[in-house]
Amino acid sequence: MNKAPEFRKILIYGVGLIGGSFALALKSAGAAGEIVGFGRRPASLLKALELGLIDRAGINPAHELEDTDLVLVAAPVGQMPGIFAQIAPYLGPHTVVTDGGSTKTDVVKAARAAFGGKIGQFVPAHPIAGAENSGVAASRSDLYQGRKVVVTTLPENSDERLDRVKRAWALCGAEICELTPEQHDRVFAAVSHLPHLLAFALVRDLAERPDAPLFFDFAASGFRDFTRIAASHPEMWRDICLANRAALLKEIETYQNQLREFRTALEQNDGAALEKRFAVARKARREWGEKQEFRERTGE
Fold first, then answer.
1. Mean per-residue pLDDT, 95-112
2. What share of the chain is helix, strand, coil (3-state, %, to 5)?
3. Do residues 114 and 220 share a domain?
4. N or C: the chain end with fewer CB closer than 10 Å?
5. CATH number at residue 228
């Protein structure tokens, strides 16, 4: 006798890389009975159907939400307030909503405005598993294997609702971590949002030079590794940067202070100062890399 899937019905808003990979992972785990996709572009939903990511495309949320176990909102964060407002009136008492947004303070604020007394049914989350390629065709069933998913629990979340969201991500192969929304945004402004901004800025600078082809012709592995994330989705990163602008502006200021120190050392022809700063960065990067390799090797 076949075991019933843990999630009888799942709705996904935004069946791109994040939402599509979530769907594929749960299907691979045999954990989803039916997955219904919603999105702005009919062509993307049709592609998701062809690839087997979803079982059908949704039309009216009023006809879908009452009997849904889990809703994942995987659209860009700038679209989330509108989606929350659209689904809030139709949430069934059993339905739990989560998200895949890269910022959390703004998403929680939007959720509180839309859901009101139902805010306990919203469990914010952020899978740390993006890629430079986006869109439905980039979806992978193993995208979350061994990756972190940060859950930013709200005081109103019951243990059952929290466990349901954690269980869904765990079935995708993810490691579950917890931060407050404020901690999340401060940390990711430094380790994710700023690096993307720097990569976009460098590539744009070179691309707009009159002799841009000369630079790109000689760019090699260092440029490739540093700028890989500049191939990310512009709309998504526009929304992320604006949503987390306060924390990101602080990180830009801190980074500019570092650049000023390096510039001063160069202006003064101070090789010792340069080497000292390089050594601090090298030690920290190597220690982090060794920890990452150990985790990947051992699964811890």
1. 96
2. 60, 10, 30
3. no
4. N
5. 1.10.3660.10
- Residue 248, pLDDT score: 97
The single residue listed with the structure tokens 């930013």 is 152
Neighbour tally for 137: CB within 10 Å? 15
Task: Specify the DSSP class assigned to residue 147.
Answer: -
Indicate if 135 and 193 belong to the same structural domain: no
In a domain, 227, yes or no: yes
Question: What would the two tokens of residue 297 be?
Answer: 């090797």
What is the residue range of 212's domain? 184-269
For 122, half-sphere exposure in the C-beta direction (CA atoms, 13 angstrom radius) is 27
Confidence check: pLDDT of 263 > 90: yes
Query: 150 and 188: one domain?
Result: no
Alpha-carbon span 236 to 14, nearest angstrom: 12
CA torsion sign for 124, 58, 38, 57 is positive
Say whether pLDDT at 2 is over 90: no
pLDDT per position as a tens digit, 30-61: 999 999 999 888 888 989 888 889 999 998 99
CB half-sphere exposure, 47, CA atoms < 13 A? 16
Within this chain, do residues 159 and 26 fall inside the same structural domain, yes or no?
Answer: yes
Integer CA distances (angstroms), 180 to 125, 152, 226, in order: 10, 5, 29
Q: Verify that 14 and 94 share a domain, yes or no.
A: yes
Flag whether pLDDT at 300 surpasses 70. no
The answer to whether residues 157 and 191 belong to one domain is no
**Residue 43 domain-assigned (yes or no):** yes
Interatomic CA distance for residues 171 and 24, integer angstroms = 11
Query: How many CB atoms are closer than 10 A to CB 224?
Result: 9
pTM of the model: 0.87
pLDDT at 98: 98
As a whole number, mean pLDDT of residues 237-246 equals: 93
Tokens of 244: 């987390």
Among residues of the chain, what percentage have pLDDT more than 90? 82
Q: What is the CATH number of the domain that holds 111?
A: 3.40.50.720
